[in-house]
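To whoever picks this up:

The parser on our side crashed when reading a file containing two proteins. I've narrowed it down to the boundary between the first structure block and the second sequence. Both blocks are reproduced below exactly, byte for byte. First block:
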Amino acid sequence: MTKLTTKLEIKSWDEQPYRQFDDGRKFTKADVTLIGMGDGIESGSFEAIMFYRTDGTTEYVTLMQLSGSFGGVPGDFVLRGNGSFDGTSARGEMEIVPGSGTGGLAGITGAATSISTHDDYPHMPLEITYSLG
């Protein structure tokens, strides 16, 4: 397994509510565009479905696509995951979707973790542990 610790720049974040309740709870969908910081990841994007509680904490599910060169091998793949925001930090756990890799990454497997606070913005820390074989 190879470990890549990086930060991705959040280039855009478009979040729209699609269901809201009188008590302040709501569901939103976020479309996010990412740019790599020169460590092999060139670009990415993800969609998140989020549930906000009345206290502002959230639970979310995501699908993220990343493109670039991993260990010198070009291609892209998809991560699926879930996470939460406790009012201070967001923590997401993801796994590489089997069969989602393209190019030299066709057989990629692994997982990723992202832990961030408002101080990280506009960057998203990401640690990916992966295997190409």
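<<boundary where parser fails>>
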Amino acid sequence: MKLVIVGKAAAGKDYLKNKLKMRDFTVGVSHTTRPPREGEVDGVDYHFIDEHKFTEMTGNDEFVEWMEFNGWFYGQTIEDFNKSDVMIMSKDGLAILPAKYRKQCVVIYLDMDRKTRIERLNMRDDANDTIQRRLDADEEQFKDDFKDFEIRITNPNF
């Protein structure tokens, strides 16, 4: 069984992923065309690739799911999915995950309140994106009532 963590920006996805990693869970590393944030390491936080390489990989059917979010591409490869215990996915990425992969997953939805998320976003140094843009993108992505999860966490101090 695989654990898939889903949530809006600053909901605690990386925090939970890292807690599980410290307990010897194998963590999946997604591919993205987004530039690295300060402190992010290629191959640890993401596989940072250019759009040409991402397009090549989609053409070769290397992803179990992929999507565009905020102008950047994100995707989980089949290889990485198969070797991972824990991974982070977007709501939309989860929605397009083929059934044969989805049935292998337990989805944990981190559903944090907006105030907590804004406080956390204000503590980050993200020169590549604005807080308002991330909040707006999340509101658009989660505008429909999200119910595709097995576990929902709302306590910001989990």
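After patching the parser it read the second block fine. Strands lie at 2-7, 31-32, 47-48, 63-69, 72-77, 86-88, 105-110, 151-153. The domain at 2-153 is CATH 3.30.63.10 (Guanylate Kinase phosphate binding domain).
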